[in-house]
Amino acid sequence: MDYFLQQLINGLTLGSVYGLIAIGYTMVYGIIGMINFAHGDVFMLSVFIALIIFLLISSLVGGLAIAVALILVLIFAMALTALWSWAIERIAYRPLRGSFRLAPLISAIGMSIFLINFVQLVQGPRNKSLPPILDGGFVIPVGDGNITLAYKQILIIVTTAVLLAAFWFVVQKTPLGRAQRACEQDRKMAALLGIDVDRTISLTFVMGAALAAVAGVLFMVQYGVVSFSDGFVPGIKAFTAAVLGGIGSLPGAVIGGLLIGLIEVFWSAYFSIDYKDVAAFSILAITLIFMPSGLLGKPDVEKV
Amino acid sequence: MANPKADAPREGDRQPVGISTALRDAGFLALFTLGLSFPILAFRTRQDLTQGLVLDPRWELVATVVAIAFFARLGWLVFGGTITQAATAAANAIGQSLEPVAKYKDWFRWAGLAVLIAYPFLAVAFTGASGALKWIDNFGIQILIYVMLGWGLNIVVGLAGLLDLGYVAFYAVGAYSTALLSTQFGFSFWICLPLAGIFAAFWGVLLGFPVLRLRGDYLAIVTLAFGEIIRLVLINWVELTNGAAGISGIPRPTFFGLPFNASDDGFAAFFGLQFTPLHRLFFLFYLILALAFLTNWVTIRMRRLPIGRAWEALREDEIACRSLGIDTVTTKLTAFAMGAMFGGFAGAFFAARLGFISPESFIFMESAVILSIVVLGGMGSQVGVAIAAVVMIGGTELLRELTWLKSVFGPQFDPTQYRMLLFGMAMVAMMVCRPRGLISNREPSIVLNEKRTIGGDLVKEGHG
Fold first, then answer.
1. Which of B59, B75, B183, B300 is most buried (CB neighbours < 10 A)?
2. Which of A11, A6, A15 is CA-nearest to residue A256?
3. Which residue of A has its CA nearest to B437?
């Protein structure tokens, strides 16, 4: 029982990170129908940005409370990653809007290759590891064993919940969110009604990247090690989460992320750690084949 | 770039920009670049002796990048109109001067073929026996493998309009079946080659079957997932594949039973030649050339068969296709099988060429590179795919040769590090400039009255 609960907590932690990345995929897909292949690498870039900012802060102002330092890191990482994502959208995707379907996909793959190699070039190919940032946790006795609820796991789950609530508010209640939902339904009509579609799409990329940066900071806190190639697999898993939840649906992305995290952790815990990625990819394939609209997505009706 | 009034220059209607506006705009871009380069460029993380991370500031690099951004933008704003006009004029002049040449298209085709066949000899003639090794192996054979893979994927993506992001899986199946059959059962390359094609085609059907109902991006993602699953199985199924360590000692292909070595019954001894490693390279070059041309020839012939026409019809309109009684299941599966088979052939060649394979060679990036070659070349255009492969693979290989740059940037400068970086940038730039690919015209397979070429934008990209 205690083993099960421990894995449940671990799974939820991992799932939160996937869910945050998945939102970036699902929003961009919802609004321009494009798989943003570079999103996983934007996440990887955000981990590097967070890492450098963290080192910078701790070297400039030593002895700063860890909570303050992490909040500063979070703010900077979100802002700078958003800037990158804005630039990527502006350079690689906006000129291809309305072009044929494969062009933005290839452009995104090119961007992904660029980002991986850019980070490898400017930061070196080796793994970057930090000493543990937030140690310790609550030990809760359950039955005849203990489960550990690490502080960083609490941090991850709470941060995810708070930011998702804030994000949900933006999408549901603000003019920007309304514009986004309008563009998602019908871009041309939204433009006719005075919505600046290009700006809305840019802001969608910015928001997705900011959430990916949150995931990046949490990833740094949890694992403390990153390399330039760490974007692809989390990116694919987050995309799987978005598909599983129903692409285009925000709560779906979060639920999908949590599910993927849980499945991955339980698979590793009870079956075989070697095949955990195979499990994630198989879920992706099975979902798409048998349930293409996912858990919460709208079925895709084809008009002839 | 940041100023919406000044961006998106269109030819003809460009207004001259005042110098103060230009300065402000360029300054804004410089500030933006500063934001992008901080902190990822400004600080390099380094492991110190205690294994802790320390930061090395590199502000001079950031300053250089920001200055380049500033002056490039300024130069573009001030002289951009003139540059655009000059470029358009030059392009038109080149186009006009090429017009009479177009008449000799067939002649060019034969000349190109002659150059290809003579390529290894030319390499030896120009660079000598030891220098030619590199030019034949890294350039000739490497590019031709990608040309063949591009042509194979072109059947699936360009003709049938099925977007496949896991093509490298079939390449892997071909390579691993060759490696396993030859090392475990002692089959020779010439038996493994067709078997590899058959296995790959079988896997093409097997993986194609569940994805028949999927369309568009979903198909792309599922094929990507299948490609990754196959790679992960190759890594983890250690008993069969030796895992990440790979399989070594794959026998090299022989020339009708004559091995390319210095022994008495080798190729050189049999023909009374002096032994040199060039013989094997020559042989491999002509082998992959023949395989690539086989792919091309089969594709061209297939387009005239009912099944090939069904592929193209499927790409143009699946619903119309079904209404006319075309069996879309068979059509799609044959396209998958056909494309996979050539991927398998290429994989068999790859395994036999290096004598060693590991799952490292079959990562997703390979699929992405092959797909980008197909799209950059212009989907469905055979010549375009070949040109794209030469440009993208040859171009990045050529970077290895730019050692003279060391004298400009100092001895630490290594141009090969920039290979994939530039590859990614080139992919984006080519898509932005020519979203329909390099070769923008097509020759339809079926015509009503006279044979003529049409614009590539008239060809559909398919739904699948």
1. B183
2. A15
3. A103
Q: Are residues B64 and B125 in the same domain?
A: no
Q: What angle do CA A102, A105, A106 make, to 5 degrees?
A: 85
Q: Which chain A residues contact residue B54 at CB under 8 A?
A: 55
3-state helix, strand, coil in chain A (%, to 5): 75, 5, 20
* C-alpha closest to that of A213 among A14, A3, A24, A2: A24
> Whole-angstrom Cα distance, residue B227 to residue B207?
10
The parent domain of residue B69 ranges over 19-86
- Residues in B touching A46 (Cβ below 8 Å): none
- The two structure tokens encoding residue B183: 């090392």
Which CATH number goes with the domain that contains B429? 1.10.3470
- Among B86, B109, B136, the domain boundary falls at B86
Cβ contacts of B226 on chain A, cutoff 8 Å = 281, 285
Chain B residue whose CA is closest to A88: B428
Residue B402 lies in a domain: yes
pLDDT tens-digit profile, chain A (304 residues):
778 888 898 899 999 999 999 998 988 888 888 888 899 999 999 999 999 998 888 888 776 778 888 889 999 999 999 999 999 999 999 988 877 777 888 899 899 999 999 998 888 888 888 877 777 778 888 777 788 888 888 888 888 889 888 888 888 899 998 998 888 888 889 899 989 999 999 999 999 999 999 999 999 988 888 888 888 889 988 988 888 888 878 888 999 999 999 988 988 888 877 788 888 888 888 888 888 787 887 766 666 5
Is B376's CB within 8 Å of A106's CB? yes
Which residue is closest to B319 within chain A, CA to CA?
A: A304
Asked if the structure places residue B106 within a domain, the reply is: no
**Under 8 Å CB-to-CB from A65, ≥6 apart: which residues?**
none
Domain boundary among B43, B60, B86: B86
Does residue A228 or residue B456 have the better pLDDT?
A228
* Residue B44 to residues A59, B57, B65, Cα–Cα distance (Å): 14, 6, 15
Q: Do A285 and B225 touch (CB under 8 A)?
A: yes
Residues B345 and B216 in one domain: yes
Q: Are residues B77 and B160 located together in one domain of the fold? A: no
Q: Say yes or no for a CB contact (<8 Å) between A122 and B41.
A: yes
Is residue B157 located within the same domain as residue B234? yes
Give B357: exposed, middle or buried? Use CB within 10 Å, 0-12, 13-18, 19+: buried
Whether ipTM tops 0.90, in short, is: no
Q: Do A124 and B221 touch (CB under 8 A)?
A: no
With b for 16 or more beta-carbon neighbours within 10 A and e for fewer, the B328-339 pattern comes to: beebbbbbbbbb
On whether both B288 and B356 belong to a single domain, the answer is yes
Residue B328 within a domain: yes
Using DSSP bridges, classify how beta strands B441-442 and B356-357 pair: parallel, antiparallel or unpaired.
unpaired
Q: How many domains does chain B have?
A: 2
Residues of chain B contacting residue A285, judged by C-beta atoms under 8 Å apart: 210, 222, 225-226, 229
* Judgement on whether residues B46 and B149 belong to the same structural domain of the protein: no
The 10s digit of each residue's pLDDT in B15-60 is 566 788 888 888 888 888 888 888 888 888 877 777 777 788 888 8
Across the interface, whether the CB atoms of B371 and A106 are under 8 A apart is answered yes
Q: How far is A271 from chain B (nearest CA, A)?
A: 14
> Would residue B445 count as lying in a domain?
yes
Among B43, B365, B372, select the one facing A106 at the smallest CB separation.
Answer: B372
Q: Are residues B67 and B193 in the same domain?
A: no
Q: Test B32 with A129 for CB contact under 8 angstroms.
A: no
Using an 8 Å CB-CB cutoff, list chain B residues near A129: 51, 53
- Give the one of B55, B213, B461 whose C-beta lies nearest to A102's C-beta: B461
- Please tell me whether residues B143 and B215 are part of one structural domain: yes
